[in-house]
Design a protein that fits this description.
Layout: H1 4-22, E1 27-28, H2 37-47, H3 53-73, E2 79-84, H4 92-101, E3 106-112, H5 115-128, E4 137-138, H6 141-151, E5 156-161, H7 171-183, E6 190-196, H8 201-208, H9 214-230, E7 239-246, E8 251-258, E9 262-266, E10 271-275, E11 280-287, H10 291-300, E12 303-310, E13 316-323
Parallel strand pairs: 1-11, 2-3, 2-5, 3-4, 5-6
Antiparallel strand pairs: 6-13, 7-8, 8-11, 9-10, 12-13
Helix pairs in contact: 2-9, 3-4
């Protein structure tokens, strides 16, 4: 049961992060704060947009290569399938159904910071896959994995981090994130990492700047959330969404841009934030990789690439890694 104390703590952390980000030069806010109930709904709409190729590519990989994925993970050893940022489980259900149909000995543990998303996923799985053992975990990724490690359960773990979520981190942050993940795993544990690959810049821009304006609404919902939860006075029509892609670095960046010079009061912060005309807040990074960079990323975090699963257009890769067994000297 949620308590007043936990709510106050959560609100305090949100407020602190917003203040810190808006006082930076340039301004920067974390994309993880897109996800309230409205944000969850808008992101589900984004994943079904024709321009947003990422979902279709990963779904194709799972649909066409589910048996190969299972064989590379291993069918003869029980494991925990822990999915970081599970969302609605649309793509993962393809593999879950395959595993259940083949009577694979495993438990599914979806992890998400959104309790509403976990509740919806659990309900849908209870209906669609009633024989699946599901144990949702609510919280931040490393908090949850750290708690599991403390329990001392040495059953094999297979970590899913799908949907190109690793792209929300810079390359340096990704190496740090994956190294931390490696530290929390045992030799033989595996990671299936969904990574968006470099491609035609026009294709990438269309995925994050759709003509229907769904992505713009998703990004601007961050300001609406500040209004609703922190007493912000953002006028959403005085800000616009902007997307840019650098084909050399592979960085696709989303911004919220102020259309005019203005000061915005945020009551919970007891302050006003000044914006110059056309000043931008960086709100999301979507890093794209070459396949050579994927291999380098694995090595930098002390993983070994087991197999790369591509969609038919080679737009996307689900890269399966293993933490190596330390040699006895």
């Amino acid at each position: 049961m949620t308590t007043t104390t936990s709510l106050a703590g959560s609100k305090k952390a949100f407020a602190s992060s917003i203040l810190e980000g808006l006082e930076k030069h340039p301004k920067q806010l974390s994309s993880k704060y897109f996800y309230d109930k409205k944000g969850d709904r808008l992101f589900q709409e984004i994943m079904h947009m024709p321009e947003y190729y990422l979902t279709d590519c990963e779904y194709e990989i799972f649909d066409r290569q589910q048996q190969a994925i299972l064989e590379h993970i291993g069918q003869d050893e029980a494991f925990e399938l822990i999915e970081l940022g599970a969302g609605d489980g649309l793509k993962t259900k393809v593999l879950l159904r395959q595993f259940v149909d083949q009577n694979i000995d495993f438990q599914y543990r979806p992890v998400d910071i959104s309790s509403s998303v976990l509740e919806q996923l659990s309900q849908s799985l209870a209906t669609e896959l009633p024989n699946l053992e599901v144990a949702p975990l609510h919280g931040e990724y490393f908090q949850v994995l750290g708690e599991l490690k403390e329990i001392g359960d040495h059953q094999k773990k297979v970590i899913f981090f799908l949907g190109a979520n690793i792209g929300n981190l810079t390359k340096t942050q990704s190496r740090h994130f994956l190294s931390q993940l490696n530290d929390l795993l045992d030799p033989g544990d595996m990671v299936l990492l969904g990574i968006d690959l470099k491609k035609d810049p026009a294709t990438i821009l269309a995925a994050y700047n759709d003509p229907a304006g769904i992505t713009a609404a998703f990004n601007l919902n961050l300001l609406e959330r500040i209004n609703n939860e922190l007493g912000g006075q953002f006028e959403l029509n005085q800000f616009k969404h902007w997307e840019a892609y650098n084909p050399v670095s592979g960085e696709a960046k989303s911004y919220i841009v102020s259309k005019k010079t203005q000061d915005v009061r945020i009551e919970a912060l007891e302050t006003s934030i000044h914006f110059d005309a056309w000043e931008a807040i960086e709100v999301e990074l979507s890093q794209k990789y070459s396949i050579e960079e994927v291999d380098q990323l694995a090595k930098s975090a002390n993983f070994k690439v087991v197999h790369n699963f591509f969609d038919s257009r080679h737009y996307f890769v689900d890269s399966l890694w293993v933490k190596g067994v330390k040699e006895v000297t």
